[in-house]
Recover the amino acids of this structure.
């Protein structure tokens, strides 16, 4: 396989290559940039994939501008890996999450490095948002575990997490078309090697904004000390909105790393207001999955059984758009996208059925009229005039009801336009799974 699409991130290409078993060949990697070739964190990701698999072959030239990757078999087992100091643990863990159910033995992964970083998804978002959507595909949480052992911020790191995942033969198709309404908001304010009052200041600021919208708001403080606090100071806030149908939407904000000239100081109140703004933006986008986990849901829908999976999402993130293009190139699967406004979705195609029934009834009336005598035609015309008047009354009532519904929806402010995605899985099965 040859993929020279420079816009598509490398980790998407690696995930698809491992799952499909097709080799990956890339040339002219970042040739027009100031520092061409693969980055150190990308090479580190390839090392993690090599630990997770058996028989993987990776060839990189001296300048790092070309890569030839031949995937092996997903083995799993107990793995320990250092993620380095360039990217956070979330960058590596999201990659592993897409491949974890298809290993030969259950995976027990320990990653060390940076847990919270403003540039990547934090481990808290993976715990409170990625894992719930992941459970829907694997069917149960038996053997699924995620723990934050230590926290670590840039540039020193020092954090650690533990991730356990069982093996599955097949995934379960999903039908998530109704996200429900927000019923409560939970959050965690964390701080490493700073004063404990920082957590309290973030909690007070976030509650002052969120309590205006919903009364059920509860934020805990997680102040780490000594060994569990990592090697560098930092703090942040992660907020999770839970709906009545079990959908989780996350918004977070984190302080900038120590030593960077960002211009503005890191004030706890500013971090809290930024986190609440990000959460409210995710709620406005809506859907059954937030923007940080869209590509995970899309990929697991494709590598599913030969059945239809549907999910309602908000606006696509750029990363999810690149992943959909790569999925089309690798597996040849296209998504059916139906735009809708304020969750007005014809899920069961009721409108089409009604239109077809009306067409059939009109054809039957025409056939009867052609077979009738002149006197019967006059009587039927009189009846048709009465029927037309009744139909006009019914249409007026329908229009009035639609206007009322529109005014109610405008009052409720149900957010931005939603998108309903549906696709048929490729029938992917885990052939390397061992039986007891």
């Amino acid at each position: 396989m040859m993929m020279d699409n420079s816009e598509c991130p490398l980790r998407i290409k690696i995930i698809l290559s491992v799952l499909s078993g097709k080799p990956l060949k890339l040339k002219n990697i970042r040739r027009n940039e100031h520092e061409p070739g693969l980055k150190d964190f990308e090479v580190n990701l390839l090392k993690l994939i090599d630990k997770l698999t058996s028989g993987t072959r990776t060839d990189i030239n001296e300048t790092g501008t070309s890569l030839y990757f031949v995937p092996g078999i997903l083995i799993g087992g107990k793995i320990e890996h250092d993620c380095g100091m360039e990217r956070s643990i979330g960058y590596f863990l999201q990659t592993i999450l897409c491949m974890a159910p298809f290993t030969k033995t259950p995976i027990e992964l320990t990653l060390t490095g940076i847990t919270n970083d403003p540039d990547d998804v934090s481990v808290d978002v993976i715990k409170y948002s990625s894992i719930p959507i992941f459970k829907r595909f694997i069917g149960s949480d038996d053997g699924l575990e995620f723990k934050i052992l230590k926290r670590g911020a840039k540039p020193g790191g020092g954090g650690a997490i533990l991730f356990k995942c069982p093996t599955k033969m097949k995934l379960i198709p999903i039908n998530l078309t109704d996200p429900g309404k927000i019923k409560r908001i939970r959050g965690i304010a964390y701080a490493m090697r700073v004063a404990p009052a920082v957590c309290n200041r973030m909690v007070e600021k976030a509650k002052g904004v969120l309590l205006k919208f919903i009364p059920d708001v509860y934020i805990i403080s997680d102040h780490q000390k000594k060994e569990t606090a990592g090697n560098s100071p930092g703090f942040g806030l992660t907020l999770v909105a839970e709906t009545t149908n079990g959908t989780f939407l996350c918004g977070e904000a984190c302080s900038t790393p120590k030593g960077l000239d960002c211009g503005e100081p890191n004030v706890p109140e500013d971090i809290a207001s930024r986190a609440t703004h990000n959460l409210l933006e995710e709620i406005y986008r809506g859907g059954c999955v937030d923007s940080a986990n869209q590509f995970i849901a899309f990929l697991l829908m494709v590598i599913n059984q030969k059945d239809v999976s549907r999910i309602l999402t908000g606006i696509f993130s750029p990363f999810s758009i690149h992943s959909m293009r790569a999925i089309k190139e690798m597996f040849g699967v296209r998504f059916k996208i139906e735009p809708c406004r304020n969750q007005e979705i014809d899920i069961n195609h009721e409108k089409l059925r009604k239109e077809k029934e009306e067409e059939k009834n009109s054809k039957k009336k025409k056939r009867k009229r052609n077979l009738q005598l002149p006197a019967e035609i006059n009587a039927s015309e009189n009846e048709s005039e009465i029927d037309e008047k009744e139909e006009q009354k019914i249409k007026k009532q329908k229009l009035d009801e639609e206007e009322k519904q529109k005014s109610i929806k405008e009052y409720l402010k149900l957010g931005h336009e939603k998108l309903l995605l549906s696709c048929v899985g490729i029938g992917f099965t885990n052939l390397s799974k061992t039986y007891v």
Remarks:
- Confidence is low (pLDDT under 50) at residues 342-348.
- The radius of gyration is 27 Å.
- The chain has ten helices and 17 strands.
